[in-house]
Amino acid sequence: MQRILTLLLVLSWLGLSAQSVDLTYYLPDIDYDPEIPTPESFLGYQIGSWHISHDQQLMYMRHLAELSPRMSLRQHARTYEGRPLVHIIVTSEANQARLDEIQAEHVALSDPEQSGRLDTEDMPTVIYQGFSIHGNEPSGANAAPLVAYYLAAARGAEIEALLDDLVIIFDPSFNPDGLTRFSTWANMHKNENLTSDSNDREYDEAWPGGRTNHYWFDINRDWLPVQHPESRGRIQTFHDWKPNILTDHHEMGSNSTFFFMPGEPTRVHPLTPKMNQELTGKIADYHAEALDEIGSLYYSGEGYDDFYYGKGSTYPDANGCIGILFEQASSRGHLQETDNGLLSFPYTIRNQVTTALSTQRAAVGLRQDLLNFQRDFYRQSMDDARGDRVKSYVFGDANDASRTQHLLEILRRHRIDVYKLDGDLSLDGKPFAAESSYVVPVEQTQYRLIKAMFETRTSFEDSLFYDVSAWTLPMAFNIPYAETGRRDIQGEQVTGLMDANEPAVPQQSNYAYLVDWDDYYAPKAVYRLLKAGLRAKVASRPLELEGERYPEGTVMVPARNQDMSGDEIYELIRSVSQSTGVEITAVATGYSPVGPDLGSNDFEPLELPKVLLAVGEGVSSYDAGEVWHLFDQRYGMVTSKVDISSLSRVDIWQYNVIVLPNGSYSRINSVASTIKRWLQDGGTLITMDRSAQWAAQNDLASLKVRKPTDEKDDDKTRRPYAKANRDRGGKVIGGAIFAIEADLTHPVFYGYHQEEIPVFKRGTIFFEPSNNVYATPAIYRDKPLLSGYLNKIYEGKIDGSAAVVVSGVGRGRTISMTFNPNFRAFWYGTNRIFLNSVFFGSTISGGTVETED
Question: Where is this region: Disordered (predicted)?
C-alpha cells in the first residue's frame, strides 16, 4: 500500500510537471468576466507550461488594460535594449474616474504640512507590486499575468470591495532584458519529457545568465544609486505615488521552501521605525494563512535582512512604506528534484500568485493602520530632524563639477531638497565655494533617507549582512562634505535633476590646447581626440603657462604637425569640449616659467586605448559589467568583450590594454605565457583582487599576498555548534568603505587633489607593499575603516597594506588593485583610478615598477 501511495504521489507530481494544471490551480474558483481572456487563451498555453517571454507578457498586459475599465497602463522607462517598462494602475472603475485626485491626496499624506487635514477613514491604500527583478527568478514574472487576469476579470462582492479600497501599481517585469535572456534559455532547452536532473543543460545557464540587466548589473541593488533606466523609471513611479506597501517577488535555492518578510530582527537598519516591522509582521499573518490553505511550506524571521536601503524590500522602509520580500525556491526551469521532493514550475508560480493576492487582502485589512503609519512616519521624521544636532550637510568639489552634479542628481531623484550654498564657507577645515557647493537641510520629509546617505556607521547590533554594510554617498563620489548645525546657509533651491554645467567655449590656438584632467569626463574628451587621429601627450609634472597653473595629468594637444588643418582641429576641440563639458584651454606659447615646457620630455605620448575586457565562465559578471558599462555608457569607448575560453585563439597584440575583472582564471593558465609576451612588448594589464592573485601566480605581476588573519591568533575557546555559521559569516568583509593614502604624483592618481581617498572593498585579499619604493602608489592608512562592518580580527592587520601595486614585465605594466574602483556604477570617486590605469599605464617609468628581480 505504501508503494502504491508513493507511486500515486509521484504520478501526481509528474502530471503537474507536465503542465496539466487548470486556472483554479492558481486562482480562486469564482466567477470571471468571459470577455476578459485568460492567459492560456491569449498565449496559447497555460502559464507554467513554458517560460513567458517579456514581449508575450507585455502584449497580454496591454490587452488587459485595453479591455478592463479597472486598468490603465503607463510606460515609465525603456531598458538599454529598448524594451518598454510599464506599470498598470489597477483600482475600481469609480476610482479610475478620479485617479488624479486620489493620487494627489495620497501623496499629501506624506507631507506633514498637508496630512493633518486628511481623513484616512475613506482613503484607499496604495500598493506597488513588482515581479522578478532578477531575470532568472521567473516565477514572479510568470505569476504576474495570472494576478493581472484576476484583477481584471474576477467578479463578485469581494473583488469589488477590494478595488474600492485599493490602488495597485502593478509592475509585471522589473527586468525585461534579463527575463528575456532566461526565458529563451529555459524554453530552448526544455524537454518534451521533463527531466528533474539538475545536470541537464536546461538548469545550467550559460555565463552571465539572466539574473542581471543588459550590462550585467544586479538592479535590485540599484534602488538607491539609481544608475540604470529600469531603476530611474521605477523610483519616479514610486515617488509619484508614495505607496503603503511594496512587494518584491524573488527566487532562491531549489532546496529551500518559501520566505516572506519580516527577516532577521537584529539586522534591520536603525533608522527604520519599529512600527514598520510590526506592520510587516501583521502583513505576514495574511501570507501564512494563505500558504497554509494550499499546504505550502514557508518560513519567516530569518535568513534575510532589512539593512541596505538600496534593495527593493528595504528602500521602501526609508520612505514611509512597508517593503516585503518574497523568496520562492526555484525550479530554474520546469522541474527539479529537491530536498523537499519534486519542484515544478507551476508550483513555484502558485506560491507567488497566492502571496500577491494575500498582500492585496492585507492592504485592505490593515488599510487605516498603513495610512496612519505613513502620515506618522513623515511627522516623526520632521520631529527627529528638528531634534538632530546636524541641521545641514554641505558638499561640493571645486575641481570637478561633473562628479558633484551626479551626486546632486541622485539626491534629486529621491525627491530630496537641495540648495546652492549662499556664500563661501569653511567647515571642519574644508573650504566650500559658493559656486561649486550645495546644501542638504535635514529638516525635510526625506530626513531618514538623507541620514542613511550621509552618515558613517562602524558599530552594529549584528555581524551578518545580506548585502553591503556601508554606502556613504559623498565618499562614493570622493567629494568633500561636512555636517553643520547651521540652517542659515541655503541659497537658491535646485529645481531640476542637475545644475547646468557648460564650460567656456575654447578659443582657437595656433600652438596647443590643454585638456583639464580634473573633470570626470576628461577621459571621454581625450578618447574622442585620440580616436579622431590627433596626437596628445600628458604632463608628468605640474607647470605654469600664461599665468595659469596646470597639474600633472594635464593633456596637451599640439595645434601643429597634425593630420588635420588648424581649423579642423579647432572645430573638433570646440565640439568635444561642449559635448563632454570638459574645459579645454587654448595656449599661444609652450614656455613655462615653472615646470616643464610643452616640448619637454616630461610630456609623455598617449596611445588610443584599445581595450580587451575578459569575460566568461569564472569571471565576475558584476565586475565585468561595471567595466563594460563605464566604457560604453560614460566614456563612449570601444570595448572588445572577449570570452576567456577564446583567448588562446585571439591575436591579443591588436589591443594595448587588457582588463581582467575580479574572478577565477585558472582555466586559462595555458594562456599566461602569451599574455606575458604581450606585456613584454609594452601592453598594460589591469587586475583586481583574485585576478591579481592569478597574475602573480603566473609571473604577470610581482605581488605578495598579506594574510590579514592568522590561525594562531584565532580564539580557541569552545563555541556552540549553533554559532558556527554566524561566526564564519562575521569574518567576511561583505562591503565596507576604507581610506587609502595615494601618491598624487603617480600617473595612476593624476587628477586627485586629496591624498586620502575613500575606496569600496569586499573580500579579504590584501597585498604587501612592493620592495621598489615607487611601485606602491597607494596604501591603506592606519585604522582605515571609514564606514561599515569590520570584524575585530582585522584590527591593525590591514593598515599599511598595498592598495595599488604596479609591476613591470619587460616594457609592459601590470596595475593591480585590492578594491573595486567601479562598484555598482555609483562609485564615481574611484573611476578615475581605473581610467588613469587605462590611459596612463604605459607612461609609468620602468624604474618605478616592481619586478621579479
Answer: 705-727
According to the model, what pLDDT value does residue 6 have? Answer: 40
pLDDT value of residue 713: 54
How many Å from the N-terminal Cα to the C-terminal Cα in the chain?
77
- Tell me which residue range forms the domain holding 772: 611-708+720-848
Q: Does position 9 have pLDDT exceeding 80, yes or no?
A: no
Residue 392 grid coordinates: 545641514
Q: Say how far residue 196 (Cα) sits from the centre of its chain.
A: 34
pLDDT at 466: 81
**Cell numbers describing residue 121:** 477613514
Q: What is the mean pLDDT of the chain?
A: 95
Residues 514, 502: Cα–Cα separation, whole Å? 17
Does 290 lie in the same domain as 155? yes
Looking at the structure, do residues 280 and 348 belong to the same domain, yes or no?
yes
Contact 206, 87 (CB under 8 A): no
Mean pLDDT within 90-96: 98
Per-residue buried b or exposed e for 6-27, using 16+ beta carbons within 10 Å of the residue's own CB = eeeeeeebbebbbbebebebbb
Cα–Cα distance list, 132 to 136, 256, 309, 315, 452 (Å): 8, 18, 19, 17, 26
Report whether pLDDT(1) > 50: no
Asked whether residue 714 is domain-assigned, the answer is no
By the 8 A CB rule, do 447 and 498 touch?
no
Sheet strands (E) in 397-468:
419-421, 425-427, 430-432, 437-441
Query: Taking the model in full, what pTM does it have?
Result: 0.95
Q: Which three cell numbers mark 476?
A: 562614493
Asked if 449 and 343 sit in the same domain, the reply is no
Kindly state whether residue 781 falls inside one of the protein's structural domains.
yes
What's the pLDDT at 461? Answer: 81
Taking a C-beta distance cutoff of 8 angstroms, is the pair 617, 539 a contact? no
- In this model, does residue 150 exceed pLDDT 80? yes
SS3 614: strand
In a domain, 84, yes or no: yes
- Across the range 108-131, mean pLDDT stands at 96
Q: Are residues 677 and 590 in the same domain?
A: no
- Tell me, yes or no, whether 661 and 802 share the same domain: yes
Q: Answer yes or no: is pLDDT of 181 > 90.
A: yes
Q: Determine the average pLDDT of the residues in 359-370.
A: 98
Residues 601 and 615 in one domain: no
- Residue 669 shares a structural domain with residue 756: yes
Of 741, 819, 755, 827, the closest CA to residue 477 belongs to 827
Q: Which grid cell is 545?
A: 603657462
pLDDT category of residue 4 using cuts at 50, 70 and 90: very low
> Where would I find the H helices in 87-216?
93-97, 99-108, 112-115, 139-153, 157-164, 176-188
**Domain end residue (candidates: 565, 590, 605):** 605
Domain count, the chain: 4
CATH, residue 542: 3.30.70
Residue 574 has pLDDT above 90, yes or no: yes
CA-closest candidate to residue 215, choices 788, 613, 747, 618: 613
Per-residue model confidence as pLDDT tens digits over 399-408: 999 999 999 9
499, part of any domain: no
The pLDDT of residue 723: 72
Residues 572 and 651 in one domain: no
Pairing type for strands 437-441 and 684-688 reads unpaired
| Interior/surface letters 115-133, b for 16+ CB within 10 angstroms, e for the rest | beebebeebbbbbbbbbbb
Q: What's the confidence (pLDDT) of residue 13?
A: 42
Angle CA(436)–CA(441)–CA(446) in degrees, nearest 5? 120
